[in-house]
Amino acid sequence: MNDLQPALPVLSARDLCREFSLPGDRSLEVLRHLDLDIHEAEMVAIVGLSGVGKSTLLHCLGLLDTPSSGQITYRSGGQTWQSPGLSEPQRCGLRNQFIGFVFQFFHLLSDLDVLENVMLPAIVGTPKSDWKQRKPQIEAKARTLLETVGLAGREEQAPGTLSGGERQRVAIARALINNPRLLLCDEPTGNLDSSTSEKIHTLLRQLHEDLGTSILVVTHDPDLASRADRRLAMVDGRFEKSADHPSD
Amino acid sequence: MQYQTFLSRRYLKRRWAPWAATVAVALGVFSLISVLAVMEGFKLEMKERIRGSLSHLVVKGSAMRLLVGEDPLLQAARQTEGVEAASPFIETLAIYKSTVLDYCILRGIDPSTEPEVSDFDLYLLSDDEIEQLQADPFRMLPEDRPPPDPQRVADVFSLERRRQMLRWNLRGDAGVGFAEEAPPQGLVVGIEALRSGRVALGDIVQLSTYSPVSYEPRIGKFIVVGAFQSGVYEQDQRWAYSDIRALQQLLDLWDEEAQDMRITGISLRLADYSQASQIKDQIHQEISRRMDLDPTEEDAIPWRSLEIKTWENQRENLLQAVEIEKRIIAAMMLLIVAFAAAMIFLILMLLVIEKNRDLGVLRALGATRSGVVRLVLKQGMFLCITGAAIGLFGGWLLTENINEIHESIYRATGLRLFPPDIYYLEQIPAHLRWQDMVLVCAPTLIFGFFGSLLPALWAGRRDPIKALHHE
User: d(Cα A63, Cα B288) in Å, to the nearest integer?
Assistant: First the structure.
């Protein structure tokens, strides 16, 4: 695929299943034959009750977990990757370059300052030989992203000194440092008050529109879900047929 | 910069606990390096002193039959390439009575040729030096002694010297049974025999021994004409030297069959000691060849069994004991390093538990399992290498300044950690060898590596999903 064929989704999941073994030869089927396409510059929200498999789906799509069966295809710049069939370095490379993660609990590294936290995915993805050459660009980009999320001047601060909303904004900047094709957000406002959540919703929507990054957001928050181009409701490991598809 | 280096720096910069492992490694390496350097210094010093009082090689006959044919033996040895000098000797055990009954190893030497094969002339003390050393048991010979004079060895056993000592002995007492014209044979004893008061300069000592040939008891009277200090306590206490000819007479070493005097053996000095093994073989061949000749031939040596030993062979047990002692101490002290590696292991395990979530985040951001393993391994090895480097530097610093530090402790506390009268050393000898540095650093790094590897592998196996759910 290439950029001239926008019809092909950035991510396609087909017949995705995830089963967990339980003691006594029992098993728990969390994802049941799911199909999902996420298109270029599309924002998709997945809603559902706790335990329906939203996070498991996110982990499978984010290559942190391996589905029991089914196939996931990632497309970027004319290249295609299919899972299963990816080696460990390929999976890690895709997590680093193709996907950006935003977690409910921010997961900033307390030993790094704000700027270093934002730079971290780029540091992980830059070979040692290129570091000296790329460092100024990475640092400049991290500063720009912090400015975009409204945290200019806070670069040297420790994450512990920031409020919850500010930390989540740092986490969003971190997720965007490598220009990912897909942003996976797991309950990004689940740990924030309503006013801060509102700001994060606006920020995500704005970044989505400005940068054209595809976003898949798992949320309980109806307000955030309503801002998505498409909303999928998940029940017992499947998407509900009555899901709202505003972009369709 | 790799992210492992970047994160390791941040983690270690903001925590003091991991550095405890570095301190432990540094202390272990420091102790090992210092102890090994001092032990090596002692070993070298001891070897040098033993070597000085022995010749490079000795050709020895059996205890009962000894060797016969002193001249052709010396000739055979001196003609061998690589042999610089040769001198005959006799060695026997003797009992003497002073304040108590005591024994000594009595060596008969040729005063004119002995200085060519050993450092006896260097160790021989002047009367002034004997007086000074006897007056102060802590006193050592000054560094700026006059160079050794081989003539002094001949002088100390000379008739003139024996007469002089007898005159001194006879002051106020004429009852020793010797006329000044025919004094007893001279005896040079070790300085420790004088210091202990068992004998004194000018004393007439009665030595009792057995003839190694006839097993008849032999009693001889000798006059103490001088003293030596070799620096090896045992030798300075037990060894005594006399003229070889006097001892041959006393022990009745005449060999009727060969019509010659027997000797215990000959001492040899080599131009290059590293060639000792080849020269040993050559001498053995040459002597064997001469022993096979017709006895009427001029070069012939009467057949006797013999053995040729280097000075190290002669003191093999002692040298091995020192080496084994050094190894045992090194092995035991390696436990300190092993303990330090265990500390690295525990500290890294705690760090992995503490940073479990960070490791999950890193995996989510694209770090591979092996990358996470390297991250933890790098921290462990950094702590270990830093500790080893500090310990190595500290050990080197101590080795270089050990005597200044020892002197400072003495001035501050009055405590002598290395009393010169026991160790015969005014200064603590310390010699740091690169082999010892490798011996210390290699196991340290290996222990450190395995101490770091287990937590690193454990970190690599952590499930990123579980780690991310942890808050």
Answer: 85
